[in-house]
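Now read this:
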Amino acid sequence: MAEFAVNVAVDLQIDTLTEEQLDALTEVGAGYHAAWARSPSSAGWLSVQLTLQAEVLRQATDLAFLVVPDLIKRAGLGWHTPVYVEAMTDAEFQDRQEQPTIPPLASVAEAAELLRVSEQAVRQAAEKGRYGAFRIGKSWAFPRSLVEAAARPEPAKG
């Protein structure tokens, strides 16, 4: 048997859950190392990351479709249908965890809007290495946090 990391979201809005309901989910999912969270989609689905043992990836995926709705039902939240599933070997999951995350980026147009200057002025600043600018292909990109920091007004001295 191999271990697989599986992420499943169900058709249940996480914002509608109480602390007690989230505690119940944590309790029933403990044997699967379940971590409950808000899904990254705009729908705000309840999502769970868990570890399953299976022979092959397909078996882990099928098992997730059975286990997750059952855990939710055992927590007293009724039956909810999965809306997506992502499964991978535990080794792949660990490798992804070790990869650096990409910070939110701003394009030339977005940076110009934030800084209230022209796109040409942003390109010139990028060529001088300002705002943490770097190229992606032929385009400039900026760490959004650096552009936002530069766009904030200076505090008054005095």
